Structures are given as C-alpha cells and as structure tokens.
Amino acid sequence: MLGLNERTRAYISLVFMPLFFSSNLVLGRSAIEIVEPWTAAYWRWGLASLILFPFAIGGVWRCRDALLANWRLLFVFGFLGMIICGGGVYVSLRYTTATNATLIYTTSPIFVLLLELVFRRQPVSPRQVLGVVLAVFGIVEIVLRGDPARLLSLKLNGGDLGILFAAFSWAVYSVLLRRPAFQALPTLPLFLIIALVGTAMLTPLMLWETVAVGPMPMVPRAWASLVGLAVIASVLPFLAYQYGVKVVGPSITSMFLYLLPAFGVLMAAVFLGEELHLYHGIGFVLVTAGVILATAKFGGGKDASTT
Q1: What are the start-end ranges of the H helices in the chain?
Q2: Which end of the chain is more exposed for a tag (fewer CB within 10 A), N or C?
C-alpha cells in the first residue's frame, strides 16, 4: 500500500477486518474435521500468544501491578473468550453449519445492549427496541430452519444453541472489558495476557482429548488449519481493528463489523460448499437490520477521535 495516506490504508485494512474475524467460524468448521475442538482452540490461542509475545511483553511488564490487581477478572476473560467462545464454539460447529453460526453469532451486540440496560441502566430508544425485536426474530428463523413446528416438537439444534450461548458469553466479555480498570490498560498487553490465561485453561481439556480420543494428526492440513486460526482469525483482525480505532476512530471502525455476516455466509458457501436456504436469507436480513438499528449511531456527529 505504498503511496497511500494513512486514512486510506486504514480503510483498506477495515474492509478486510470483518473477513478475518468471520473466518474463525469457517476455518474452525474445517479444522475440527481433523483436529479435536479443544485441541484446535488450544493451538489457536497458543500460537497467537507466541506471535504477539515479542510485541506485547514489554507492556505487560510495565502494567504488571494493574494486571495482578485484576487477576480474577483475567481468568473470567480467559474462560469466556477462549473456553466458551473458543473450544465451545468449535464443539458447537460439529452440530451446525458455519452459515448458521455466523448469523447467530452476529447477534452479540444485541446482548451487549441488553446487559447494559439491565446492569448499567442505559436508556434504550424505540429504534433500539425495534432492532432487538428484529434480531430475535432473525435468530428464531435460523434456529428453527424456517419451520415453527420445530419449536412445538422441540427439534432444536444443539449446535445452534451452543453458538447462541457463545454470543451471549462474548457480550458478557465485552461489557466486563469496559470496566475502568481495563479501559486504562494498553490493549495489546491486555490481549496477550488474556490469550495466555485462556491457553493455560485450555491445556487440561487438550490433554484430555489427547488421552481420550488420540493425539492430533501430525499432517500438513492440520497445522495449516491451526496456523490459519491463529494468524487469520486472531492476530490479523485484532491488529486491523486496533489500527482502525487509532486512525479513523471507534465509531467508524465498529461500522465495518456489520459486514461480518455477509463475509461469513459467503465464505461458508464458497469454501465449505454449504447450501443457502430461504430461512438464511430471511434471518440474515432480520439479524443485520436489527443489529444496525440497535447499535449504530445515526446523526451522532463526527467522531472525536478522528480529529
């Protein structure tokens, strides 16, 4: 991107950011065909930690007192982010499609809104209420495969429900991360510590899989999947997001996250050969419209951080 100014480079990075983020569900769906889910999560975050370590360890040392003072919450972050939203997602992907998972996981901002309403008494506008309702209908459409009779006969897919629980867990993670103690910390060192804690928590589950199921196949495809999860689905989207926030501000950066379901569904169809159905289209429209209505800032003026 030689010759381009910084804002142009930032916008190009932000176009790829949702592609990188949504690749986790597609790469994860492919990886668990040859690697056990908890083992895949362990190596994903272990390799990501190794990549981030030389860039973040200095900041970790400088912030050691603040990190140690909040060690309990760091374990909560590791559990929510790497256990439930890591290995738990990969377990769920054995029972559902990457397409369903992408659309359902997109509802996480809705849960953030509801959690802040309940615990922080944040005011909610009629537009946001409409957004929540639309997103809920979108989830129902996807989970029931467009067939209301599934609800009456309790024919619900456990994988879909697992992804929905992961979306809620990620919302809890996001709300906790907004606490003043963590807002004051540099992002890269904090991310490294959470990744390391999560990797440590995944270790016994990885060892259990190794003993109960068998060791990970030492074949190029397995390692390629794991490196892809670590680099493409973890480090690259994180760096692109941080770069976007720094250059164009958080409000503009967050708008690009609305491209997540489109990228995820398209990749699932192209790379995994998953079929798209009418209920996917209806769910996509409802969920995406709901998330935008509930979380976007319309007419909010210029982002202060862009100046």
Answers
A1: 6-31, 37-62, 64-69, 71-78, 88-92, 98-105, 108-120, 126-143, 149-152, 158-177, 180-183, 187-212, 220-230, 236-248, 250-255, 260-271, 278-295
A2: C
